[in-house]
Amino acid sequence: MIRTPPSYVLGINARNIDYISVYNKKKDFPLVDNKLTTKRILQKAGLPCPKLYHSYQWFWELQQLPEHLSKLCNFVMKPARGLAGGGILVLQEQAPDNWQTPSGKSYSTKRLVAHGSDILYGVHSIDNTTDTVLIEQKLNQHQFFNNLNPDGISDIRVIVLDHTPMMAMCRIPTEESDGKANISLGAIGAGINMDTGEIIHAVTKKGSIDYHPDSKECLIGRHIPFWQEIMAMSRRIQDYFPLGYLGVDIVLDKDQGPLILELNARPGLEIQNANREGLKRRIERHFTEASLWVDL
Amino acid sequence: MGLLCAVFLITVIYKIMVLGYHPRMVIPVVSYQVKLDMHMEGHGKEVNIRTFIPPSGGRQEITQLQPVSGSFHYTSEQSGNNLGARFYKSNAKGPHSLSLSYQAKNKTLSFALPESLSLSFESLPEWTPYLRETPLIQVRHPKVLALAKRLGISGNKNAVTIVRQAYLYVADSIQNAGFSSRTSALLALQLGEASCNGKSRLMVALLRHAGIPARLVGGLIMESGSKTTTHQWLEARLGGNWVPFCPLNHHYAEIPDRYLTLYYGDEAMFTRTANINFTYRYEMKKKMTARTQQANRGGVSWLNVLNLWEMFRQAGIPLDLLKVLLMIPLGAVVIIIFRNVIGIHTYGTFLPVLIATSYRETGLFWGHFIFVAVIITGFAVRFLLERFRLLHSPKLTIILVSVIVALLFITVIGILTGNKNLFAASMFPLAIMAITIERFSIVAESDGFKKAFIIFLWTLAVVTFCYISMLSVLLQSVIMAFPETLLLIIAVSIYLGSWNNLRLSEFIRFRKLIFETAEGAGKR
Known about the structure:
The structure holds two protein chains of two kinds. In chain A, the strands form two sheets. Chain A has a seven-stranded antiparallel beta sheet with strand order 11-10-9-8-7-12-13. Chain A has a six-stranded antiparallel beta sheet with strand order 1-6-2-3-4-5, sandwiched between helices. Chain A is built from nine helices and 13 strands. The two termini of chain A are 38 Å apart. Chain A has helices at 12-23, 29-33, 35-45, 65-70, 109-121, 143-148, 227-240, 271-275, 279-295, and strands at 52-56, 74-79, 89-95, 98-100, 106-107, 133-136, 155-161, 164-172, 188-192, 199-204, 207-209, 245-253, 257-264. Chain B is of the alpha+beta class. Chain B contains 16 helices and 15 strands. In chain B, a hairpin with a 2-residue loop joins strand 3 (73-79) and strand 4 (82-106). Helices cover 45% and strands 22% of the residues of chain B. Chain B has helices spanning 2-17, 142-150, 159-173, 185-191, 196-210, 305-314, 319-342, 351-385, 392-417, 430-447, 449-470, 473-481, 485-497, 504-509, 511-514, 518-523, and strands spanning 29-53, 60-68, 73-79, 82-106, 109-110, 175-176, 193-194, 214-221, 225-227, 231-238, 241-245, 254-255, 259-264, 271-272, 279-289. The chains are: A alpha+beta, B alpha+beta. The A-B interface holds A 1-6, 9, 11-14, 17-18, 83-86, 114, 118, 121-123, 128-129, 184-185, 201, 203, 207-208, 269, 272-273, 276-278 and B 340, 343, 389, 391-392, 442, 445-448, 498-503, 506-507, 509-510, 512-516, 520, 523-524.
């Protein structure tokens, strides 16, 4: 039995042909593929994002890393053009010269310099060319997500088409996903009502769920805090980025509220499973409503 | 797109109607790789083995003749109508293996005999050998005479009637027997049953009796596999031609393309020194190749692509290679369908096409074997390299070296074990294999080894499909005769390039979304 006509579902072919190639120009991709560029534009626009402490583009700059780290007690180290979350380290100072990741791995400052040079070499970059090291603020995750899963950072993905948020979900890490907000690794994708910010449906790669498998917290019916701010931020993004079809990744900080973590010019399609609705239908409905307004 | 299809149709129709292209051109040529393996044991004395090399010319095209004589002395010598192959060693001791291999491309030979053909007694001395009595072909024996009289052969002036009567009697009234010993014409007649040689001798005896020159032909019925059974049939001189008959397998005035002629006359397949424990075996492999040359009335028209192939041939460009190159776009279309319509991920967009191309020499099974072996080696090397944290290109270079070493190693193994399929390992695209290993490792790192392995299995599956479609001799023949098929490939690519429907795999990915499941329906 057909629940949603297949024509309502956005597939990779239609996404690439009808949306990405229409709304996103090739030359604008680097604006979002490089997190440092993205961050600079966001800061200029006054859109909130995690604070950047330092960036290193050249090997000789890495010599300053130990001195810079000595002034921090926690931070995130990541490549500016990383591939699928590779090379990201979240670190907390445990003892002098002993940094620890949430999963308990220890890093000495010397090892972190080595990791930094790996990033510069391009080991973790999308195309294996040289990259930039970013040292940025470690998030203090908001209580809402900490209640669901304290061992990892959850994020909110909003698909924005031409200044209009079309569909949203939050990605909540699980033990299986090893604290990563990656659905293909086992994280939860939870669809959100665009008007109210309420979680309406949730999936893992195995199927629909109502409860977080580790914390047993019920997901359905919860309201994402700061929802109206999140929507407002999402609407504003395309005033500053010339890409008309974007995935906006937002995290919630205890003190600063919603922060834009990164943008994606080729957002994935799993969001449709999380919402149990086809994206194409949402978009078409939006356009027919918009044209009705014009007619009035 | 419509334009491309129109141009395609117009050129195809033009070629068929005006240039005289024939559908037969797309039927592949069948040829056989024949190898005669011989084994013997010498006792320190002189050993002589003589057999026949199939004559080339007429209905039979023999190429790539290759004797493997080891320490034996090999000579080939013409004797009468036949070409002999002689292996000789003055002091052969212990076991020895010899072989003679060649490729045979034969045509069916068939004659339409007229209703009547007057019997012209060939009195010239050159026909006497074909009319004479021999110890095994008893032309003048009373029993043969009686039979000839009974069949209405004696005194008949119509050569066609004689031939038909003799054929019908030998083919139908003499039972086919399985024994392989030499049977004379008389013995076949007396027993009422015989194998190929007895039947053929009896028919030769009847024809010679009536004054029609006739001779035995010895050869082989070619079919894939190995066998020791050789075959004999006969030819009669009618209307200035040697017309073939095989009373055993009921071929009247014709022989099929599977018949390989090795010698003419009542000869023995092997003439050799006695007591050397001689054994032999024919190994045959059927090969299908696309047609590349065809006489036709297209002439010098620039649309006649056959002229172009002829030009390439004269310039020494191997057409076999060209054929495979022309098939690459077809393989690419297969990939597009797998990626964009079915939704299967493989390593490298066109990697499967290139891999499939290199399977040309190895075949599917050994090709997969080489590919898998090299990827495993490379992955292991890549894994060991991990700790050195090298830059991308130097790391790829090291993987490349390991790929080359692995391929050479496989080639050596192939030579040592005599597995010819492995010889072509060094033809594999090295750099592309190295990049595949790198991609495999990256996917294994970011999405887990299982995912990387699944993509690898899909890659193998797509390679298989590319191989099947690209090495299809029928499709090769079509593309060689009608290279404008490439226009169709462009048209299909344009169509698929703007095809924005759900991929097949997405129906599975979004199944919960698209299809109402009992569980989902009850839940909300």
